[in-house]
Design goal:
The chain has 205 residues and is mainly α. It has a single domain, classed as CDP-alcohol phosphotransferase transmembrane (TM) domain (Four Helix Bundle (Hemerythrin (Met), subunit A), Up-down Bundle), CATH 1.20.120.1760. The chain has eight helices and no strands. The chain has helices at 3-22, 28-40, 42-47, 51-75, 79-103, 105-136, 157-169, 174-200. Helix 2 (28-40) packs antiparallel against helix 4 and helix 4 (51-75) runs antiparallel to helix 5. The longest helix has 32 residues, at 105-136. The radius of gyration is 17 Å and the shape is globular. The model has no long low-confidence stretch (mean pLDDT 87). Keywords: Membrane, Transferase, Transmembrane, Transmembrane helix.
Length: 205
């Protein structure tokens, strides 16, 4: 829901930084993989309840996620790079929830499991539509720079990161935050499924 505005804010500084990195010869896929490795460090950090360090790792991962796209556009984006980026993003998101479950299994495991269920819904509805949109040659003018059809919703990337930040800052409220975000994921999945279904049928809702 907020991605269109957050992307507009962060793109200019990311583009400037990407131009500097481009002169070093650093590739977009290298940035993607490096950011993913740093992001996976959140699992043991959260398990150990080192929430401040986990938050830094999340921030570095998101920085890399923004930089790799800008680098790719400077050098020429590839389907392989776009594929790597989206797959590792989803793995990273799920890893964070697993880390919170490990931090306090007795309290966090159940809401974490439901939130991962919610992620399955938002992720599958997002990617399935992108596949069929590509087959039909559909484009999304709201996110024209994306390497695939970016189907919006209430729970997008910006909202996801906002909840992760809140969970790190207020880990004692993880349960409440997880249930609230699960609800947003359910609504997002429902609207994507309905909207995507009728769009692909060539109907308006």
């Amino acid at each position: 829901m907020l991605d269109r505005w957050s992307l507009a804010l962060v793109k200019p500084p990311l583009r400037t930084l990407a131009k500097s990195l481009n002169r070093t010869g650093l590739g977009a896929d290298t940035v993607t993989l490096s950011g993913f490795v740093v992001g996976l460090a959140t699992v043991p950090l959260l398990a150990l309840e080192w929430y401040g360090l986990a938050l830094i790792a999340i921030g570095l991962n998101r920085l890399a996620d923004g930089l790799d796209g800008e680098l790719a556009r400077l050098r020429g984006a590839t389907d392989g790079g776009a594929y790597l980026d989206i797959v590792l993003d989803f793995v990273f998101y799920a890893a964070i929830i697993a880390g919170f479950a490990l931090a306090n299994p007795a309290q966090n495991a159940l809401p974490a499991a439901f939130l991962l269920w919610g992620f399955m819904g938002t992720g599958s509805s997002f990617l399935a539509f992108a596949i069929l949109a590509e087959r039909r040659g559909l484009t999304n003018m709201v996110y024209p720079s994306k390497g695939f059809f970016y189907l919006g919703g209430i729970a997008e990337g910006t909202e996801t990161i906002a909840f992760f930040v809140a969970m790190c800052l207020f880990p004692e409220h993880f349960v409440v935050l997880a249930w609230v975000f699960f609800g947003l994921c359910v609504v997002t999945t429902f609207t994507r499924v309905v909207g995507g279904y009728y769009t692909l049928r060539g109907e308006n809702v």
